[in-house]
Amino acid sequence: MKRTAPPSVTGEWQLALPLTLFFGLFFIGPLLLLLVISFYADPAMQTWGTADQYIQAVADPINLDVLWDTLILGLKATIICLIVGFPLAWMISRASPRWQGLMIFLVILPILTSVVVRTFAWVVILARRGIINESLMTLGIIDSPLRLLFDETGVLIVLAQVQMPLMVLPLLTTLQRIDPNLTDASAVLGAGQWRTFWKVIVPLSVPGMIAGCILVYAACVTAFVTQTLIGGARNIYMPLFIFQESMDLQNWPFAAALSVVFMISVLLVVALLVTIGRASKAQPA
Amino acid sequence: MTHPRIDRRSLLAAGAALAGAPLWPRITLGAESLIAAMFGGTWSEVHRTILKPCFEKDSGASVSQAAMLATEQISKLTAAAGGQPPFDVAMMDEGPALQAIERGLLAEYDASLSPNFGELLPKFQDPWGPSVSMQCIGLAYNPRTVKEPPTSWEDLWDPKYEGRVGITSLASTLGTAFLVEISRLNGGHEGDMGPAFAKLQTLLPNLGAVSANFGAHAALFQQEVVDVGVQNFNFVETLKGKGVSIEWVKPDTGAPAWKTTMHVVRNAAQPGLAHTYINCHLKADVQTAMGAAPYNVIPTNANVPLSGQVKEKVAATHDELDKLIFYDWSKINEGRDEWSKQFNRQIRV
């Protein structure tokens, strides 16, 4: 037997054992269980080994409509996060160290409170007689209250705020790593500020954008609390849909099949984002 | 001095054991501790403030209470089937109770361990667990924005309420009972919901919001997202007690109602304490306290007369409770899966 790795490395893989074990027990295990359950034919889980649930999931158009709506919701929220988050991350990366600390604290502040509390705070803000509507009406900008709660607009606003840190933090790391000499060099070579931004800063920050987008996207499409409390029952997204099947109707096999379909769809989107990231890295900026 | 040597193997073993901790059977805090499920809203308030002290006095044990919908309780008990259940006492509405019994999740109630069981009116003495109360639904409205109170379900269809009506999904008994009632009033019944869905379609222009669950439903009125809608009698009274502008009206066609029951869970860790706990809910003094404002919980003990808001708005006597509208919940359970899908299809924006 030939060992190529130096002796110091052979022991290192063992350090990953606890984590591997943990993942195996609490992630891979339940995931396999989910797969197994999805192949039961009936809610009472008596007959196993059919794809009935998957056929049902694809056959009924409402299932695919809800899936599509969810994937698009994630896309919209991610774009908003990127548009708002980029300037924010840019500003923080240029600020003096003292301000930087404070601004980063403000950005991560939302993560420090429970998502349920945050969402209920938004319910109060977005309600018909909430802060936004009352202020706009007092200022005479609108005559009747805007419909923000129980509407996709509201869901997008809240998702963008709640998930913003997941976009800003990776972006910030990338932006801070950009060598300031590069912008100076660009300026010396005659590029204006906009040109420097588009030709130097943006291409160099793509890895951060991709990382942020993946995090935000995955968090938005699965944000059960926000989607349900702000969107209500008329804006149905996959997490609520799966909850209804599993908890309200106790149809676990169908809920499991929906979960698997949902998970694969989200993974495909994430894979797409990773591919875009790789492609942009391969191209010289 | 020798340092205790921790070798890698034992460290790993300890780590794995720790990681597996949630798989262990429920950790009991003290020797005598009960875990009880309850509904949210009015129920969690009366259970915390009235039921818990009574139980602690009668048993000398402690109880931890967790708010859960009936359907959620069934899911958790089903998931734990065969092992030790996550809680000892379940609280159910009629439909879910039948489902839980059918699935073998509940234990039969031992009346000999429950001295006050016999004080209940006969119709509330079920062998699977006593009815601790009844719940009924009706029309709720905001008196600040609705000057002329609604009187019938039909009023929800009034064009003047365009975009101002709130209903809730079929996840709760409240939402289900509303839909069955609409079917009944339009020539259908529990086995024939066609008329309900046809009628629901015409309600769409008026729908301001459909809450995804019971908890969110109260917020519709609290945040004034809707001005009028369907709501549980007790919940309106509790909200009113919190200063929310809301009133409840019994519809002119009667108020749909169902029994609310409590059960000892099969294989419960503390069956004795579970009986003591449920028995407390049957006592005349406990039911009298729960029947007072702002809770207005409908009593089931024959020695507790109906009073206050219950007497004024729901029924004057125990006999009059029979005039509320009841359904065949086993029939409803058969159809719920299909109705839920149909409901989603119709209300989806």
Provide structural commentary.
- The complex is a heterodimer of chains A (285) and B (349).
- With 285 residues, chain A is mainly α.
- Chain A has 13 helices and no strands.
- The two termini of chain A are 46 Å apart.
- The mean pLDDT of chain A is 89.
- With 349 residues, chain B is an alpha/beta fold.
- Helix content of chain B is 39%, strand content 15%.
- Chain B is built from twelve helices and nine strands.
- In chain B, the strands form two sheets. In chain B, strands 3, 4, 5, 6, 7, 8 and 9 form a seven-stranded mixed sheet that branches. A two-stranded parallel sheet of chain B has the order 1-2.
- In chain B, helix 2 links the parallel strand 1 and strand 2.
- Chains A and B meet through helix 2, helix 4, helix 6, helix 11 and helix 12 of A and helix 1, helix 3, strand 6 and helix 12 of B.
Distance linking N and C termini of chain A: 46 Å
The largest pleated sheet of chain A is described as:
none
* Percentage of β-strand residues of chain A: under 5%
Roughly what is the average pLDDT of chain B, rounded to an integer? 89
Percentage of residues in strands of chain B: 15-25%
Tally of DSSP β-strands of chain A? 0
Q: What distance separates the N and C termini of chain B? A: 74 Å
pLDDT averaged over residues of chain A: 89
Q: Per the principal axes of the C-alpha atoms, what is the gross shape of chain A?
A: globular
Radius of gyration of chain A: 23 Å
Order of helices and strands of chain A: HHHHHHHHHHHHH
Structural class of chain B: alpha/beta
Question: By helix and strand content of chain A, what is the structural category?
Answer: mainly alpha
